[in-house]
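Q: What would this chain look like folded?
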Amino acid sequence: MAFEYLGQSALNYYPCRYGTSKIVFRGPEKSLSGKYCAVIGGSETYGKFMDAPFPTLLEKLTGRTIINLGCMNAGVDAFANDDVVMDICNKAEITIVQLTGAQNISNEYYTVHPRHNDRFLDASDKLRALYNKVDFTEINFTGHLLNVLKKSSTRHFNYIRKELRIHWVAQMKMMLERIGGKIVLLWLSKQDPFDPLRLNLNRHWGEPAFLNRDMLNQLSDVVAGVVEIVATPDEISAGHERMYFSQMEEPAARQMLGLVVQQAAARELSTLLATL
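A: My prediction, written as structure tokens:
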């Protein structure tokens, strides 16, 4: 596979903030005085290593002003607890929500960083009681945390997974009701929500982590539509060849779905937006 090693300075993300929000978004900053659509989501929405992520492509396809509120490694907490983001989305004609995993939210077992939701901050007394032999002081990220918990006890890990799913649905419902208006959910993944590998504790939990069709169905009464993009290996491979990153950044870049998948998302979203 051919990759473009163009260095960190090859792309300018025009980082910006809106109002008093502490989240740094991908720019350039857009005016909020007229009509617009808002997009919230994680790393794929931000579009690191890509010159034109799907919000930018969607703007070109529809002629609408699209406010990209994507944040690297963000989960639901980063947006649901940010009054500025919620206000921007509430005033949007349509809000697109890229679905992010259930692992990156604070819950009864552990807390995460309020903005960088992939960062593990602390284990609760309940988690420490379940895993009294685990040393949490060397764990800094939720992915590492869950790998340790799963390896230590599959039975106890099942409790964690169940809680994360329940809490994710509740947190999403709260956020979507606060946004109001017309909302479109975007499933952007290598796997279908029905993928049986997601339900097998002996396999990786997929991305978005722990999400399944039943969880999406519980949100159906508060959204106007759902767009599902399931990327094939060929699409991901072709999209990686059109990304920009240094050799040191290659491992992180390989985790992204790539430009071809971003283009597919923009096309499907533009079709749905036309009906709304």
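Residues 5 and 243 are 9 Å apart (CA to CA).
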